[in-house]
Write a structure and sequence with these properties.
Length: 435
């Protein structure tokens, strides 16, 4: 419903949920809300399709796509089938592979391939689906969160593409603005804090001519701590390749970004160099720096932040799309309970339970990453041998473990031990190679 306020020379709309951002998190939120009979407006300033990284899906992320009813749309876009992830240690040695598997009705692991996609295509079909099921799209940039005296968020102010200002009042605002972290930046959610892996730079592009493995797996290559590369086939010709290095290492190279990218592609790991003897760039070379962060208190009266809008840990295990789609579904459940059944209305934070559950999953990935970086030999032993099934579960996205698996418990023990050693002898932990 829309109104025009003559005295303020601006438009006003009302809806149940206003969604900041039309990427996969925001669009998936709208789809799940529509299934629950809840109307939403998506505010997005960019026109799709548009370039984006984060092309690889976990097994549970693939299931989330199916839950959105997008299998037919997926059949119509270029993609590859992901059967697993192969990890190459320093010098191309110490390789291990983890397959994509699900748990069947007997709790047994069975094959369950997922996808790797060109995000420009994937993001477009999710947004199109959201509009198909009834969400409204407003083209513009959110400039302000509307708050009552007690801090309750009741909508947003938008600067439209044509320069007009529009007020959208809502019962709940979902922040799916990604790394923009709009509500944190606006001072509504908690402050954006640096994560453990923020002093890195990721430099990436799409290439043609790279040599894949037989199954088009996601490949990860390592040089040393915080210095690695990804290799993700996304259609029959194109591969997404990114190199991640310490920020100081890149700055000290004093190289043009494109030249640095092409050189590092051949330097990081011989197993990667063998796959890119002569590649053609089909996208410009882009970079993302200082990307590890966390926003606490990312829910509250009238608002929920999802995915990258409240936390980004490290892209190494391809959990970006997973968290966007999973938290979209969880947020829709929480909002439905709040709007339809009054769940949490008498609480200081009506979405506190939702926040705690989301943190449980992200904390699991943080712990696994900490183990990988601080004790890679232990990690490889756990993943490949001792707790193989537990790590298959984690890599697939079964990470909301209220009762931690033996593999996750082992990770926590190693992390505690390495933290003690780092406190006692910090000089030993400046560079930890992956073997």
């Amino acid at each position: 419903m829309a109104f025009f306020c003559h005295n303020e020379d601006r438009f006003m709309k009302k809806t149940e949920v206003a969604i900041i951002g039309g990427g996969p998190g925001g669009a998936a939120s709208a789809i799940h809300l529509a299934k629950r009979g809840i109307k939403s407006i998506i505010i997005e300033k960019e026109t799709f399709p548009r370039f984006h990284i984060g092309e690889s899906m976990t097994g549970e992320c693939g299931q989330a796509v199916r839950d959105l009813g997008l299998e037919a749309e997926m059949a119509g876009i270029p993609k590859t089938t992901k059967h697993g992830v192969t990890v190459y240690g320093q010098g191309g040695k110490g390789t291990f592979w983890l397959p994509v598997m699900k748990r069947d009705e007997n709790n047994q692991l069975v094959k369950n391939p997922t996808w790797q996609v060109k995000r420009s295509d994937f993001d477009r079909i999710v947004l199109d689906k959201a509009l198909e099921v009834g969400a409204e799209l407003v083209r513009g940039k959110v400039t302000k969160a509307l708050q009552k005296e007690d801090g309750t968020v009741y909508g947003v102010e938008v600067k439209l593409d044509n320069g007009d200002t529009e007020t959208i009042e809502s019962d709940v605002v979902i922040d799916a603005s990604g790394m923009t972290t709009f509500l944190a930046t606006a001072g509504v959610a908690g402050k954006r804090e640096r994560g453990k892996y923020d002093r890195q730079v990721a430099i990436y592009s799409h290439v043609k001519g790279a040599k894949r493995d037989e199954q088009d797996n996601t490949l990860i290559f390592y040089e040393q701590k915080n210095h690695w590369a990804w290799f993700i086939p996304i259609d029959e010709d194109t591969v997404s390749i990114g190199v991640v290095t310490p920020s100081d290492y890149y700055r000290n190279s004093d190289e043009d970004m494109r030249d640095f990218y092409l050189r590092e592609m051949h330097k990081i790991n011989p197993a990667l160099s063998d796959r890119v003897p002569d590649v053609k760039l089909v996208e410009e070379v882009r970079a993302t720096s200082n990307y590890s962060y966390q926003v606490r208190d990312f829910t509250g009266k009238g608002f929920i932040c999802i995915g990258d809008a409240h936390r980004f840990i490290d892209p190494i295990f391809s959990f970006g799309l997973h968290f966007a789609l999973k938290e979209a579904s969880l947020a829709a459940d929480a909002i439905a309970g709040y709007l339809h059944d009054g769940v949490g209305r008498d609480q200081e934070n009506p979405f506190a339970e939702h926040e705690a559950y989301c943190e449980l999953g992200m904390d699991t990935i943080q712990e696994v990453l900490d183990c990988f970086w601080s004790s890679p030999i232990s990690f490889a032993f756990f993943a490949h041998t001792r707790y193989n099934e537990d790590f298959i579960d984690i890599f697939a996205g079964r990470i909301y473990q209220t009762e931690p698996s033996p593999g996750l418990q082992a990770v926590r023990k190693v992390n505690a031990k390495m933290a003690r050693l780092a406190a006692e002898q910090p000089e030993l932990f400046e560079h930890v190679p992956v073997e």
